[in-house]
Amino acid sequence: MDNAAVDYFRNGCHVGLSIGVVTPGGVFFYNYGATRPHGHTLPGRHSIYELASVTKTFTGSLAARAVIEDKLHIDDDFRLYLPGDYANLAWQDKPITLATLITHRSGMPRDIPDSDAIFTKKDFKTLPYELLALQKGFDRSKLLSALHRVKLRSAPGSTEVYSNAGYQVIGLGLEKIYGQPFETLMSRQLLQPLGMNSTGFTVEGAKHTLLLSGFDRQDRKVPYHPRNAGAAWGLYSTTEDMSKYIRWQLDANDPIVRQMRQPLVGNAKEGEAMPWNLATEGEQPVLWHGGGSFGMSSQVVLFPAQGEGFVLLANDTCEGTEGALKTIAMDVHASFRRDRARP
After folding, report:
1. CATH number of 2-341
2. DSSP letter string, 267-326
């Protein structure tokens, strides 16, 4: 792990790095870098980071539970689960479904309100502030209203286009199914049962002292994600809490976990599930999902056959950070395998 971290920090843009590793022999934590650029204070396993789009795996967990409980069907017209009539969420009578929403193939825009113009500019200095201004005051009622005006950009199931809006729609559907606000569902159905006491959509009270700042590729401190990021990219967490989540995700006997691993696109060797990315390494399955906010990057990588899982959290959004985090997990896992293979 130390060697992998040395390679990672050859890129002087990186700031802090916290890693949790779950293995059959125990849980291990590693911390490198600093809490701020050119600082001297190490982050720790209690340091709170933004999970960014790793949040989508939590939303997928709730959706998988609804499927297991027969409250939601993967290929149903998802409009049946929404509060209101959304005739617009279909393309030539082909409606959005859970399968197309969760694999970014629903035809939904990236964000609601539409953020395409902001991302097209690729101005990373102004992007956080423009997005925050776009989302300011955009609460649940405004989302539901704006959803009536959305026009699908492709036939559901035909084209992969990344969409936070699709996950917000999943959240709205889960609210209607269970009759509870999404954040309440997340807490009661997932976070509390797993004992993830430092994970949530807000950071309150004394825990705020553990919340790290995020930094862009020019070492500038940047704001956190908007409060309404919710089901798409709204969670905060720690490597200690995420180790509990990973241990659960490695339990192949859990029906929710099994449901989440079922390929919806492609197959187990190269595909997408609910919403894990699926691949193989040495003929063994690998599942992963990454995330990036304005100033933080995240990655979760699972090796179910070996009972190993990694969470890697960084408080920078340097070019390629998400991929570099995955590379650490892959390299360290390969080293584990080589060591086990030695006589």
Report:
1. 3.40.710.10
2. ETTEEE-SS-EEEEETTEEEEEEEEE-SS-EEEEEEEGGGTEEEEEEESB--TTHHHHHH
- Count of residues making up the chain: 343
Q: What are phi and psi of 99, to 5 degrees?
A: -60, -40
Q: Look up residue 303 and give its two tokens.
A: 């090796």
pLDDT digits (tens, 9 = 90+) for 110-144: 999 999 999 999 998 999 999 999 999 999 999 99
> Which of 311, 273, 271, 272 shows the shortest CA–CA distance to 291?
311
Assign 337 a pLDDT band (cuts: 50, 70, 90): confident
Sequence spans of domains, the chain: 2-341
* Model pLDDT, residue 282: 84
Tracing tokens 């553990």 back to the chain, one arrives at: 210
Q: Where do runs of H (alpha helix) occur along 10-139?
A: 55-68, 98-102, 116-121, 127-135
Average pLDDT over residues 94-101: 98
Helix then strand then coil, in percent of the chain rounded to 5, is 40, 20, 40
Residue 235's Cβ-count burial label (10 Å; 0-12, 13-18, 19+) is buried
Tokens linked to 19: 């890693």
